[in-house]
């Protein structure tokens, strides 16, 4: 799906200009953000708003068409975090300086692992933004 400008703005606005997975902020990103399918079309997803998320390029590329990934603790496959259905606090928490997203459930750990939510550049940016009270973004 090629999102038109109005739809992309609607999805961006709902996400407050942040990646719905790693919380990178568009206004500080050198890379474009995308409207992505939470459940890919190839896996039965739709173009409805409830299946669309605002995603930075790093998360979008790593997620690709996955809807599950292996939880490294249990060894079982777990559903990836769905920003429309899941409650963030049930699957993740921040570390003390808000630079790392920690998975606290199979879904959280699988999502952190597959999407590499603590990529070096994202973590470094979080540290800097935290120092100027711009992170976390909510």
Question: Topology, please?
Answer:
Blueprint: H1 5-14, E1 33-37, E2 52-56, H2 57-63, E3 68-70, E4 77-79, E5 92-94, E6 101-103, H3 106-115, H4 120-131
Antiparallel strand pairs: 1-2, 3-4, 5-6
List keywords for this structure.
two-stranded antiparallel ribbon
The succession of helices and strands, N to C, reads HEEHEEEEHH
Overall spatial form: globular
Largest sheet report = 2 strands, antiparallel
Task: State the share of residues found in helices, binned by percent.
Answer: 25-40%
Q: Give the integer mean of the pLDDT values.
A: 95
- Given the helix and strand composition, which structural class is it? alpha+beta
The low-pLDDT segments are: none
Strand arrangement across the biggest beta sheet: 1-2
User: In percent terms, what proportion of residues is strand?
Assistant: 15-25%
Instruction: Supply the number of helical segments.
Output: 4
Number of strands: 6
Radius of gyration: 14 Å
- State the end-to-end distance: 29 Å
